[in-house]
Specification:
By secondary structure, this protein is of the alpha+beta class. The protein contains six helices and ten strands; from the N terminus they run E-E-H-E-H-E-E-H-H-E-E-E-H-E-H-E.
Length: 231
């Protein structure tokens, strides 16, 4: 039986740790392991729920200092909620073709997150996307794209789900600039959530404080603040 966990985020220098209720006495040892294992030359940042006073006191006792970086989590209960939407004209919604449309996906993310210049298509960049899209809980049925009449991807919602849990996680969501304000973001998110619900998910979470998600029914769940320790 697992009693606690320590893991890093995308990179070393940002980490999370937790223990099962009733095993809080392990937190000091897990924090020491986390600090030793996941720090880099910049130190280590750990995200903590603002209401978790026990962990906050522990971090402060170990010289962790509050940082400006925060994360807000919104939640949507999927049971007995309408996920209907109007399909915008001129596009079709479908699950992403992971094996054949990797560059179309990369181009969509590049433009959808407002990057400028040519889309990077070097081998290292493409390999990173391949590895992400081959993750254990990657299910292309839950990764929804809006495709225009020319076959280009113009909006996207990624949804992640493990049937060992009761929730889906929304990330990322984007629409290329020339297709914004047409309801595409709403359509791809709701279609993805509808599919997630069909597989058994009861809740959805997204790290955001955007009014866009709140307009879809997401509500405040929790707020995390990073605390930093310099080595």
């Amino acid at each position: 039986m697992f009693l606690g966990i320590a893991t890093y985020d995308h990179y070393f220098d940002e980490a999370f740790f937790a223990t099962k209720p009733g095993f809080e006495e392990l937190e000091k040892d897990i924090l020491e392991y986390t600090t030793t294992t996941f720090s880099n030359e910049n130190g280590l940042g750990i995200a903590v729920n603002d209401k978790d006073t026990h962990t906050l006191d522990l971090l402060r006792s170990k010289k962790f200092v509050e940082n400006d970086l925060t994360e807000n989590i919104l939640e949507l209960t999927l049971q007995n909620v309408s996920l209907d939407y109007v399909n915008p004209e001129g596009v079709i919604l479908k699950n992403m073709d992971v094996n054949n449309d990797l560059f179309k996906y990369r181009k969509l993310l590049w433009k959808g997150f407002n990057h400028e210049g040519p889309v990077p298509d070097d081998e290292i960049t493409i390999d990173k996307k391949k590895r992400m899209l081959s993750a254990r809980n990657m299910n292309s049925f839950l990764h929804i794209v809006a495709e225009n009449e020319d076959g280009a991807y113009v909006a996207y919602c990624g949804l992640w789900y493990s049937q060992k849990t009761d929730y889906v996680y929304v990330e990322p969501v984007c629409t290329i600039p020339e297709y914004r304000q047409k309801g595409l973001g709403k359509a791809v998110v709701l279609e993805a959530l509808k599919r997630g619900r069909s597989l058994g998910a009861e809740k959805a979470y997204v790290i955001s404080d955007s009014s866009f998600y709140k307009s879809l029914g997401f509500q405040q769940h929790s707020h995390y603040t990073f605390y930093w320790h310099n080595i």
